[in-house]
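User: Okay, second chain of the day. Same drill as before: sequence in, C-alpha cells out.
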Amino acid sequence: MYPRADVIVFTALGKEYKAVKEHVEGPFTEYDVGGALFEFGTFSGKHAQWKVVCHETGPGPTTAAALVERAVAAFRPRDIFFVGIAGGLKDAALGDVVAARHIYDYESGKDLADGFAPRMTTQLSAFRLVQRAQAVARDDDWRDRIKSPLADTVPQAHVKPLAAGSKVVADERSATARLLRQHCGDAVAVEMEGYGFLQSAHLNAGTGALVVRGISDRLSDKGDDNDRVWQPAASRHAAAFTFELLYNLTVSPSSRAGLGDGVRQMRRTRRTDGQSTIGFGPDHTAVVVAGDGAVERWDLNSGEELPGVPGGAELRLGHQAIVSPARHSVAVARTRSLDVVNFSGRSGEHQFRSVPLRTDEFLVTSGGEVLATHDKRRLAVRSFDDGRILREVPCPAGLAATSISANGSVVAMATTNRVHIHRENAPSVEKRIRNWMEVLKPGCWLAVSPSGRYVACASFRELIVWRTGTDDVILHREFSGQERFDGFGAKGMRLVCADEGRVLWLRRGLLSEVTGSREITHLEQAGRYDDFAVHPDGDLLAAVGSTELVRVWQWNG
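Assistant: Same drill. C-alpha cells below.
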C-alpha cells in the first residue's frame, strides 16, 4: 500500500525533472512501484498543502503512458501533469510556455497504396485545469517562480493545442512537418508523450490531467545552443507555470467526502481497563497503547501482528501515550515517569528509557519526530530517543490546552479564551477565542497540524482554524446550543488538525469532522472510540475504542 498523493508531476528528461523538483519541498521519500522510482514531497499552495509525487518516465509515448497508469493506480492522485519541453511550430517564441488545451495524435491514420491517409484523434485536457491555466496565463505572476531566469528573456504563456507522436521532427521541410501544417494547423508545438499521457488519464475516471511545455527549439532552428541553453530554460519556465497553477488550485467539495473504503480491521489481544491510544508508525504500521502501557503493533499491508511489549505500572491521568509516525517509538506517561520505548524496526527488539516527571506534568497529545510535556510553568519539547529536553517554552497563566507540530517548531498553548502560538525564529502571536462563559475552565481544545501550517482551537462556543504563516482564518464555526451542551463533562475529548486544515473532533466517544456547514458530520462508528489518529500522509484514519477491534479507513481528501 502506497501513500495517497494529491498530484503527480511527470517528466520525460532529467533536466525537466530537475526543474520540477526545485519547486517541491522535502524531506523526500522514495517509493519503488514495480521497479519504477517515485519521489514524494510537498508544495504549499494558497488553499492547501499539496502532496506531490515526481517521476521521470524517459522519452517516448509508450513508456510514459504505461508508467502513468502504474502511478495513478499506486498513488490515487487528484491531478496529474506532464511537464517539459517541446518544439515550436508557430505563434510561440523560444522560452514561451504552452498549456495544452488538447493534443492531436498526428500518427493515427491509414496507410494506403497511394499514400498515408491521416485519421487524427484528439485527447482533451481536464476542463477545470484548462480554465485555471487560462487564468495563470492572463497574469504575469508565474514568471516570478522561474528559477535562474535568463537575462533579457520575457516568456509568454499560451493555452493552445499541441501535436504528439513518436517521431523527433527535426526539419520544417520533412513529410511530418508538412502533415502537421495541413492537418494540425492550430497546434503551436510538437512533442512526444502528451497524447498517451492524456489517454491514460482518460482511462482513470476522476483524475484531472494537463500537459505543460516550454518551447526549447523550432523546426527551422535546431542546434547546440538549444540543447545547452534553451532546453534547461524552457524546462524551468514550464515548471514555474505548472506550480503557479497548482498554487492557485482549490480543493473541490467532491474531494472532501469523509470516510472511504475500509482498509484493515485488526483484533486486539491485550484488552485492559482504561483509555487506549492509537497512532500510525512508519513503514505502514498501526500501533495501540493500552490502558496499562502495553504496546500492540500491526502491519497495515497484511494485518499481521508485530511484536510489542507488555504493560505494567499504573498510568497517570490525562493523555497517557503518544505514538511517533516518524520512528518505531512510543512514549507512555506513568505516575512518576515518562517511559520511551524505541523498537528496532518491525522486530521485537527495543530499548527502554525512563525520565522523571513532576507530579503536575502531563504529556502533550501531538508531536511525531519529537514529543512534549507541560506543567503550569513551561512546555518542554523532548527527544524521542531518551526523553531529554530539547527546548522549553513558558506557559501562560491559566493553561488549558497544548499542542505542537510534528517537529516541535510550532507550539500552541491556550487559556480559556486566548491562544498563544510560538514559532521558532519568528515572533509569537496571540489569538482571541470566545467561550460560553469567560470564567469557564478549561473550556477549550487545541490542535496544531503536523507541518505547523495550521492551528485549530475549539471552545464551548466556537471553532477557529488559523493559517500560522499569514494569520488568516480559514475556518470559523459558531456552535449550536446542542453542540455546546455536548461538550460539558465529556471525557477523552480530542481535536486533530490535518495538514490541509481539515479538523476532526472526538467528543463523548463519537468521531466527527467540523466544517463550515450547518451540521457537524459524524463519521463511521463501531462502538465508542477512545482515540483516533490521522496518517501523516492524510489519507488514512484509524480508531480504537470500546470493542476489541482496531479499524483503519481511507479518509478521502
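The longest strand covers residues 208-218.

User: Thanks, on to the next one.
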